[in-house]
Amino acid sequence: MRFIGITGGVGAGKTEILKYIGQHYKCEIYLADEIGHKVKEPGTEGYHALVALMGDGILAPDGQIDKPAMAAKIFAGVNIGNTLEATGGETSWGNPQISEAYIKGLKALGFNAVRIPCAWNSHLSNETTNQIDVAWLNRVSEVVGYCVANDMYAILNIHWDGGWLEDHILGGYSEALNTKQKTLWTQIATKLNDYDEHLLFAGSNELGMNETSSTNNEFKNVEDIRTIMKYEQAFVDAVRATGGNNATRCLIVQAPATRISDAVAGVYAMPTDVVENRLMVEFHFYEPYNFCLMEEDADWGKTFWYWGKDNTVTGSEHNATWGEEEYVKEQLAKIKAHFVDQGYPAVLGEYSAMKRTVSENQEMHNKSRAYWNEVVTREAKAHGCLPFYWETGGDINRTTGAAKEDYAIEGIMKGAAAGNYPF
Predict the structure, then answer these.
(1) Which residues are the active-site residues?
(2) How far apart are CA 275 and CA 291, in angstroms?
(3) Structure pTM?
(4) Nearest-5° angle of CA 203, CA 209, CA 215?
(5) Distance CA 141, CA 149 (A)
(6) What is residue 53's predicted lDDT score, i.e. its pLDDT?
């Protein structure tokens, strides 16, 4: 009896070769992925070894390994922002190509997970059929491979992507857009199917956020939220239909506009899934706006340069007047009650406070950013939310992965160490 092993990287063509062999030769074919699933089934040696390594907290009530619980092993996550989602190409927004050295640098800082915002619509080889360019699929797979090879979790999404989906919510449901969503995710999921549970898929980014900026950041028509839900169901169904590892992969859907208020307003609901305990919900947090995003004073309010109970400057007009520690806890408690306590872990997919050069007290501003990072990271974990810091090259060197602003990274890591997931 002869044994022939077929090996190769993700996307190398192993599946097609095995299909050909199975059709033309009398032989038995054994797939490593299927064997890998079987050795993790309850009662097997592999199952007991994995539980011994990671603890019984990774088990669902039925004794099966619970992948969201495994994902909760994420200590701290970071975005590789303004890179693969750049619509003009990976380096078109000013950042260098992602290297494995950079990923290793992130891990050395203390991160064990990355979120990879990604564009796809600008990388189509056929716009009529929405066929993704093979070279781009290979490049994205290469970056995911850097993460998995270094034992890091990775979240891959369809980001803004020119707004083809997320900026066309208020106009009503479109079957053409729904079909495009399915077509893109079928290709992405098929290409990356060989990766194990270290890879998670996120269906979109901030659906309806830009459009509702002109409606007081509110969805005025509940049907718009139901439109989002239809597109998210298409994402889940498309990925599951590709089988293999994708049949049970953790999938992440986005709350409307990724706003907490819309997530918990009572209309939005999670998709249906053919497997249990494999869905998460994503939201973003940039509050208080005056501290995180506001670039200059306005007639309705001042920018906040300082934030937190011990970070005020006497006589300054730029001390925070709202949105401090208790506010953060109150907002995250809403996500916990509405999703986490109902069995859906949450992903805080983006959070950060802008770095400023201030005229009064730069040291206090830096301390405020560090403390905000600490509080939001700690409270996110305490409320069942996996934290992924939004970073585009201001705080971390995009070539080496080393810290540029040590205080900002130290704040994240301090919060991550103090935060304990409630599951």
Answers:
(1) 206, 350
(2) 41
(3) 0.87
(4) 150
(5) 12
(6) 38
